[in-house]
Specification:
Among the domains are: 178 residues, Ribonuclease Inhibitor (Leucine-rich repeat, LRR (right-handed beta-alpha superhelix), Alpha-Beta Horseshoe); 37 residues. The chain contains 14 helices and 53 strands. Strand 7, helix 2 and strand 8 form a beta-alpha-beta unit. Helix 10 packs parallel to helix 13. The longest helix is centred in the C-terminal third of the chain and has 25 residues. The radius of gyration is 32 Å and the shape is globular. The structure holds 2-acetamido-2-deoxy-beta-D-glucopyranose (7 copies). The site of one 2-acetamido-2-deoxy-beta-D-glucopyranose (NAG) has 5 residues, from loops.
Length: 917
């Protein structure tokens, strides 16, 4: 490094300098995410490492210092104060360096500074912040300032400060936690300001007298992802220099295009996720003629537009990007679209467009890169020998009518990196070229068709593939070696057969979902090597044998030190139900500390339940061990499992009593579960996918399975709270404590040898929907408190020794099939039974009666019981995890600014990750 030249630039790539309205990106939202953001990929720290040395001070004439993107910061490392002493600096770029703590006011000494960039990464463990930015006013020559991502939320009068820097041309303060004061600020000195970026702050109102309306030379204004309510002020029409206006993701209502009557320079307009509530033709007519010829990008997604896409759309001849997703548009797509020769992206997902789409629609669209028509009942009638004039990168046709033939015209589209033709009614063989043509694809979803064929042995050469969703098709043959880049794979509900490969070849795999195939053989030990694995689902296959003996978890691991597996440290769900697996409870799970869901149901596992789970698996929420041969007693330690909310031990050989301390099961003890404390849920939350909790009803298991297959129940799993101990050899009394598990919705202890009375307080379980105590040796009267459980829709007390009057009135009598729920209790009386309570002797206790014979008889019937909640869990989980997966992928790709855009992505990207039938 020499001092002479006066410039030091050590910037790493991945950092764009200013947000610019000119871009060729297909989607404005994507662009927003990519540009001007610290592109820090997960787990990666780029460039130089270490500390900034004060020896820089020796460079007396240094005027240009660019260290952006180098990880010279870190937790507890502030921006060095001495930088404020390099007086000669005119350019200082410290963007994306992971600095922590307060911004040093010494920077205010750099009075020659023209450009200052302190942009901070929002998703990181460091937090650059400032409570006082008055030092900025000493930078009298400053032209561009970027403090995006720096927490400025405690500064009230930030506007007052920045207006003291009248030379500013570019001001970027996105994601700073800023709000605008409600008092008007009529004047400002910012007469040079051209770019104002306030993306993702906490601005909730746009006072018509705000200063920026008056800055007539502003070319670019970004207010998206704030909390602005109400009408868009007319003053916006006075900003005649505006070229780019981003207002997406606010709560604006009744947005009128007439407001833009003077906006003749507008070329980029984003209004997505606000309310326009108008017929699309009317809305488009409201723009002045000059806008029609100038506008290049228009995003009206999720604005409640109605009516048809007007055929006059073809007059908007400069449009390159048109986004109309998530509206209520009807009718056919006008042929005029085909005349919009500059079109690069056409995104119409989630409307009610019908009619047909043929090659004529795209005849002269040579630049088209994104075509997204997902979730419209539209017929794609493009002929299979048509050779498109364009080269798509993104092609989304999910839930359109594309089949029955495979869209062969896609063969030439070699640049595609995102392809979704799921649920498009395709009943065909997958063409051989598919896997080679799409070798550059990163996301493929062809799920929910009837596409058949074998997976090629060359699958591994799809070297860019990150997500492959082939679920619910007719694929046959073996699972081949997978691409090394692959993160998510779903081939569930196909007809794959044969064993799993000994080595999958995809070391980064996070989710592997292969349920409902005919895969046989054992689970290969390679699974132990998949250190990023989060979800592994091999359920409903023909797998046999013991689970792999991962070296972590083996007793003899000392000896094997040389080959210690990394361990599945990120595993959050392991789902293996309905196979023929055997052996003991898997020990290697001790090294999966975030495990949330474990489903080993319907296998041949045996031995005692482990006592270590509470210590090693603190987040375990769903433990489903139904239908195995586990024996021994329920470990006392299980009550330490504070997140446990569903425990299914049905149909095992578990004996002994229910352990004391049930009340410690906090997740079951909360009446209405609070969000956030459930790891699955918070993961889910972050994706912004809607929860449809109100709709959940699981009166009986049959219905659950049925309902579980509906998409809406995706998140229902997080609300299921239950205990199922049925069909074991448990005995003793039902502990009183059970009445403190207020969250319980399902309690089934039938087919055991429980004795004693039904706890009087059972009526405290106010959320209980299904209670089955049948086939036990319970005696005494039915507690009247049961009648207080208004949610109860399934009750079975049959085959016990209960006696006395059946509580009358209210709920219990209205349950369907009410007589059979008391059957086999010879001393019960009163309606709905025919036995009247007035007969002498019937109210006595007769608990000495032995039901053993009867039980044996009915046990035989119960063994055939196959349906159950586990089915639902599994179905739900997959739908969910696929969504999560998809967003995580996006998250990884565009890490920096996604947070506020999530909800929108959830809508527009909804199309892609769907399973279900
Ligand atoms: C730089 O700024 C700080 C605080 O703003 C001030 O105390 C200090 O005297 C200044 N240093 C020089 C060398 O001007
Ligand atoms: C920003 O700072 C405020 C006040 O210190 C704090 O409450 C808030 O959580 C911070 N915001 C972020 C995103 O860290
Ligand atoms: C404009 O700038 C001058 C100094 O350049 C300052 O005195 C004045 O207060 C500023 N006016 C406003 C409204 O900020
Ligand atoms: C727009 O500009 C005109 C002319 O300068 C002015 O009379 C009017 O008040 C402005 N409108 C708003 C809402 O600021
Ligand atoms: C959408 O617009 C219609 C009128 O066109 C209105 O009745 C409806 O409430 C709007 N929907 C939403 C979600 O704002
Ligand atoms: C309780 O479990 C038994 C055996 O597993 C099952 O047959 C019965 O249907 C369950 N009861 C309810 C209400 O689901
Ligand atoms: C209660 O369980 C018994 C035995 O399984 C069954 O015959 C009866 O139909 C069940 N009653 C209800 C209401 O489910």
């Amino acid at each position: 490094m020499t001092a002479a030249s006066g410039a030091v630039s050590l910037a790493t790539t991945g950092q764009a300098t200013s947000s610019s309205s000119a871009s060729a990106m297909p989607s404005s939202k994507t662009m927003r995410i990519l540009f001007g953001a610290c592109l820090v990929l997960m787990g990666e720290s780029g460039g130089l490492q270490g500390k900034i040395s004060s020896s820089l001070l020796a460079l007396q004439y240094l005027n240009h210092l660019d260290l952006s993107g180098n990880s010279l910061g870190g937790v507890g490392v502030p921006i060095p104060k001495f930088l404020g002493s390099i007086k000669s600096l005119t350019y200082l770029n410290l963007a994306c360096m992971n600095f922590d703590e307060g911004v040093p006011p010494q920077l205010g000494n750099l009075s020659r500074l023209l450009h200052l960039n302190l942009e901070a990464t929002v998703f990181s463990d460091t937090l650059l912040h400032s409570d006082d930015i008055s030092w900025l006013s000493r930078l009298g020559l400053l032209r561009s300032l970027d403090m995006s991502g720096v927490n400025l939320s405690t500064i009230r009068d930030w506007v007052g400060v920045v207006t003291l820097v009248p030379s500013l041309e570019l001001l970027q303060l996105s994601q700073c936690g800023l709000s605008l004061q409600h008092e008007p600020i009529l004047q400002s000195n910012l007469s040079s300001l051209q770019v104002l970026d306030l993306y993702s702050n906490r601005i909730d109102t746009l006072n018509p007298t705000y200063w920026f309306w008056g800055v007539l030379i502003i070319k670019e204004l970004d207010l998206s992802s704030n909390k602005i309510v109400g009408q868009l002020p007319e003053a916006i029409g006075n900003m005649t220099s505006l070229q780019t206006l981003r207002l997406g993701d606010n709560y604006l209502s009744g947005v009128k295009s007439e407001l833009f009557k003077n906006s003749c320079n507008l070329s980029w307009l984003e209004l997505w996720s606000n309310e326009i509530d108008q017929d699309m033709s009317d809305f488009m007519e409201g723009f002045p003629a000059c806008t029609k010829s100038k506008l290049r990008s228009l995003d009206l997604s999720a604005t409640n537009l109605t009516g048809r896409i007007p055929s006059s759309i073809k007059q908007w001849e400069n449009l390159t990007d048109l986004q109309l997703s998530d509206n209520r548009l009807v009718g056919s797509i006008p042929l005029g679209i085909g005349k919009m020769t500059n079109l690069r992206s056409l995104i119409l997902n989630n409307n009610q467009l019908n009619g047909s789409v043929s090659e004529e629609h795209f005849a002269s669209l040579v630049y088209l890169m994104e075509l997204s028509l997902s979730h419209n009942p539209v017929h794609i009638t493009i002929s299979s020998n048509w050779i498109p004039t364009f080269n798509l990168e993104v092609a989304n046709f999910a839930s359109t009518k594309m089949g029955p033939h495979f869209p062969l015209w896609l063969e030439g589209q070699k640049d595609i990196f995102e392809l979704d033709i799921s649920a498009a009614g395709i009943v065909d063989l997958v063409p051989d070229w598919f896997w080679t043509v799409f070798s550059n694809v990163s996301y493929v979803n062809i799920s929910c068709n009837q596409i058949s064929g074998r997976l090629p042995a060359t699958l591994e050469f799809m070297t860019s593939a990150q997500m492959l969703d082939l679920n619910s098709n007719g694929f046959t043959g073996l699972l081949p070696l997978l691409p090394e880049s692959l993160l998510f794979l779903d081939i569930s509900r196909n007809s794959l057969s044969g064993p799993l490969p000994q080595d999958f070849g995809a070391p980064m795999l996070r989710e592997l979902v292969l349920f409902a195939n005919h895969i046989n053989g054992t689970i290969p030990i390679y699974v132990c090597q998949l250190q990023y694995m989060q979800v592994l689902d091999l359920s409903e296959n023909l797998l046999v044998g013991q689970l792999p003996q991962c070296s972590k978890g083996r007793d003899d691991k000392e000896e094997l030190n040389t080959t210690v597996d990394p361990g599945n440290r990120q595993l959050s769900a392991l789902i293996l139900h309905s196979n023929n697996l055997s052996g003991k409870f898997p020990e290697f799970l001790q090294y999966s500390p975030v495990l949330t869901l474990l489903d080993l149901s319907h296998n041949k596992f045996e031995g005692e339940l482990p006592t270590w789970t509470s210590g090693k698996l603190p987040y375990l929420s769903f433990l489903l061990l139904r239908h195995n041969m586990f024996s021994g007693s329920i470990p006392l330690e299980l009550t330490e499992q504070v997140h446990l909310q569903f425990l299914d031990l049905a149909n095992n050989r578990i004996s002994g009593a229910i352990p004391r301390g049930l009340a410690k099961l906090k997740a079951m003890a909360q009446y209405s579960k609070t969000r956030s404390d459930n790891p699955l849920e918070s993961k889910f939350e972050s994706t912004g996918v809607d929860n449809h909790i109100e709709a959940i009803k699981y009166d009986d298991s049959q219905q659950i399975v049925m309902k579980g297959q509906q998409l809406y129940y995706t998140s229902a799993i997080v609300y299921m709270v239950g205990l199922d101990f049925s069909c074991n050899n448990l005995l003793g009394e039902i502990p009183e404590e059970i009445a403190s598990l207020f969250g319980l919705k399902l309690l089934n202890i039938s087919h055991n040898q429980f004795s004693g009375k039904i706890p009087d307080k059972i009526g405290l379980l106010r959320g209980l929907e299904s209670l089955d105590l049948s086939f036990n040796e319970l005696y005494g009267e039915i507690p009247w408190s049961l009648t207080e459980i208004t949610t109860l829709s399934h009750l079975n007390l049959s085959y016990n020794n209960l006696s006395g009057r059946i509580p009358s009135g209210s709920r219990l009598q209205t349950l369907s099939n009410s007589e059979s729920m008391y059957i086999g209790n010879n001393y019960l009386c009163g309606p709905p039974l025919s036995m009247s309570c007035s007969r002498p002797g019937v109210t006595e206790d007769h608990h000495e009666g032995n039901n053993a014979k009867k039980r044996d008889l009915y046990l035989g019937l119960a063994v055939g019981f196959v349906t159950g909640l586990w089915m639902v869990f599994v179905i739900l989980l997959f739908v969910k995890t696929w969504r999560v997966a998809y967003f995580q992928l996006l998250d990884n790709l565009y890490r920096a600014r996604c947070k506020c855009l999530w909800p929108k992505y959830a809508q527009t990207a909804d199309a892609s990750p769907k399973t279900g039938d």
